[in-house]
Specification:
The complex is a heterodimer of chains A (143) and B (94). By secondary structure, chain A is mainly alpha-helical. Chain A has one domain. Chain A is 63% helix and 8% strand. Chain A is built from 5 helices and 2 strands. A two-stranded antiparallel sheet of chain A has the order 1-2. Chain B has 94 residues and is an all-alpha fold. The longest helix of chain B has 25 residues. Classes of the chains: A mainly alpha (143), B mainly alpha (94). Chains A and B meet through helix 1, helix 2, helix 3 and helix 5 of A and helix 3 of B.
C-alpha cells in the first residue's frame, strides 16, 4: 500500500455540505410522490445514496458513531411497516391493502390531505435504504 | 430557428457521448475512464435540460438533480478506488 498520506480535505468539506442537499432532495421526493413523480422507492434510493456517500467519504467506524443502525434491521423494520399497514385494513373489514384518506384541518398548514399510503411508502423507503446500504457495504468492504 | 439549434445541439451531445464511450472502452488508463464517465454525466444532464426546453416542461428537473447526484457519487467512488484500492474503509488511516 501507499505510505504517502492522502489529503482529502476538499472532498470531506464538500461532502459535509452536499450530503444535506442529497438528503433534502430524498425527503422532497418521498413527499412529492403524492401527486408528482417520486414516492417511497425513489425517495429511499436518493436517501440511501446520501448515506452511501457518507460511507465512501468517511469510514465505517466514523459513520457508525453518528448513525448506529444495523441496516439489515432497518430493511426488516420497513417490510414490517409496509405489511403492517396492508394487514391493518383487514381489521376494519376492508380488503387487504385497502388504504384510507381524508382531509384534515391542521393549524399552520391549513386543509391537508392525509392518507395511510404515506405509512406504506415509508415502509418501502426504509426497506430500500436498508437493502441498498447493506448491498453496497457488503460488496465494497475491505478485508 | 431556436428549435433547430436545440436539435442540432442534442445531436452534437450524442456525438460527444459516443466519443466518450470509445474512451471508456479503449481508454489506456483508469483515470481516463473516470474522466470520461464524469463527462458523460455532465453531457447527459445538459441533454436532458435541452430536451426539457424543447418539450417546454418542468418534469425533468428532478431527473437532472438525481443524475447530478449519482454522477458525483460515481466519480468519487471511482477516484477513491484508483487512489486507495478500496471504496469503503473500515477505519481511515491518518
Amino acid at each position: 500500500m501507499q505510505t504517502l498520506k492522502i489529503n482529502d480535505v476538499i472532498l470531506r468539506t464538500v461532502v459535509k455540505g452536499v450530503v444535506f442537499i442529497v438528503l433534502t432532495l430524498g425527503v422532497y421526493l418521498f413527499f412529492a410522490g403524492h401527486n408528482d413523480p417520486g414516492g417511497g422507492f425513489i425517495g429511499g434510493l436518493v436517501l440511501g445514496s446520501g448515506i452511501v456517500l457518507l460511507y465512501i467519504t468517511f469510514d465505517i467506524e466514523t459513520v457508525h458513531k453518528g448513525m448506529p443502525f444495523d441496516f439489515k434491521k432497518v430493511a426488516a423494520l420497513g417490510v414490517l411497516l409496509s405489511t403492517g399497514s396492508a394487514i391493518a385494513s383487514l381489521f376494519f373489514g376492508a380488503p387487504f391493502l385497502r388504504q384510507a384518506d381524508d382531509y384534515f384541518d391542521i393549524p399552520l398548514l391549513g386543509k391537508t390531505h392525509l392518507t395511510t399510503v404515506t405509512i406504506f411508502e415509508a415502509g418501502v423507503a426504509l426497506t430500500v435504504i436498508g437493502t441498498l446500504v447493506t448491498i453496497i457495504l457488503s460488496i465494497s468492504e475491505d478485508g | 430557428m431556436i428549435e433547430k439549434i436545440m436539435l442540432l445541439s442534442l445531436a452534437l451531445f450524442m456525438v460527444a457521448i459516443a466519443l466518450l464511450l470509445y474512451r471508456i472502452i479503449k481508454g489506456p488508463t483508469l483515470p481516463d475512464r473516470a474522466i470520461a464517465i464524469d463527462t458523460i454525466g455532465v453531457n447527459l444532464i445538459s441533454a436532458i435540460a435541452i430536451v426539457s426546453i424543447v418539450l417546454k416542461t418542468k418534469a425533468f428537473l428532478e431527473a437532472i438533480l438525481i443524475l447530478g447526484i449519482l454522477a458525483f457519487i460515481g466519480t468519487i467512488a471511482f477516484s477513491k478506488y484508483i487512489e486507495r484500492g478500496v471504496i469503503v474503509e473500515r477505519k481511515s488511516r491518518d
